[in-house]
């Protein structure tokens, strides 16, 4: 079992964010006799997955939907698959945009380097 601060440190997210995910019913930590949140290994793995979804710009509402479907059980497997496949297509589009932007930046950087090199030669 892990405390909220331990989970936050392991995942690189704030305890405030973990409380927010709890409020949004994305995670439900256990509580000890004093009411202190305690996270299991499986909840830690779940939060690693949620963190990756957030890092790839999946909206909280979609994560909440996925979480609810998961809680409903195996009969929602197709819906969960569809949701993840749709998000994967979004990520693929993001990657393509980043590659195109990177190529454009590479051209600009090369042009500036050539320009600066030419300026340095003419000043010598």
Layout of SSEs?
Layout: H1 4-11, H2 15-23, E1 30-31, E2 37-38, H3 41-55, H4 60-72, H5 77-123
Antiparallel strand pairs: 1-2
Helix pairs in contact: 4-5
Describe this structure in words.
About 75% of the residues lie in helices and about 5% in strands. With about 120 residues, the chain is mostly helical. The chain has 2 domains: about 1-55, Multidrug-efflux Transporter Regulator, Chain: A, Domain 2 (Orthogonal Bundle), CATH 1.10.1660.10; about 65-124. A two-stranded antiparallel sheet has the order 1-2. Helix 4 runs antiparallel to helix 5 (about 75-124). It starts with a helix and ends with a helix. The model has no long low-confidence stretch (mean pLDDT about 95).
Notable features of this structure?
two-stranded antiparallel ribbon, 74% helix, Multidrug-efflux Transporter Regulator, Chain: A, Domain 2, 2 domains, mainly alpha
Structural class comes to: mainly alpha
How is the main sheet built? 2 strands, antiparallel
Unreliable segments (pLDDT under 50, ≥5 consecutive)? none
Task: Quickly count the domains.
Answer: 2
How much of the sequence is in beta strands? under 5%
Strand adjacency order, main sheet: 1-2
Pfam families: MerR_1
Organism: Peribacillus muralis
Keywords: DNA-binding
Protein name: MerR family transcriptional regulator
Short structural summary:
The protein is mainly α. It is built from five helices and two strands.
